[in-house]
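Justification of computing resources. Each target in the renewal requires a structure prediction run like the one illustrated here; the chain below, 163 residues long, is used simply to show the kind of job we budget for.
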Amino acid sequence: MSALGAGVVWRQWQAATWPADATAAADPTLWQLRFDRPEGGELAMASLLGQPLLLNFWGSWCPPCVAEMPELDRFAREMAPAGWRVLGLAVDNPKAVRSFLAAHPVGYTIALAGFEGADLSRRLGNLQGGLPYTVLFNAEGKVVQQKAGPTSLAELQRWASAL
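Resulting structure tokens:
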């Protein structure tokens, strides 16, 4: 298929799946999922509805993921008083995540998506499947912003102020 033809198909698919206001419903199964936590126990995604959520897909083996974690941590601390949550979903094996977090702890919630997390990120718009991948949900669970590649504190603050 030519690049022009692929672009037309992409645009038609995007128009059919993403509303014009750039707010899209998340995969409804997202809010039914449960993930193990590195420290034990589990996280029910349904418990995160009703508040803005910044969801970041990452891997301990991913240098840009690791580089943005201090920015995510600072954003989580700044926004917690306003009811925001930050969740890092590790697309990685549990042992590697536990080892990484022991050496580099963060204050925001981490859960273990395993390598199936790559499929979930694709269902949330990460068409290339790369990491890091960040999605902002409003309190109603709708996607309002997403980005493939690393974010910055300034960018996250702009997203938050636009919500």
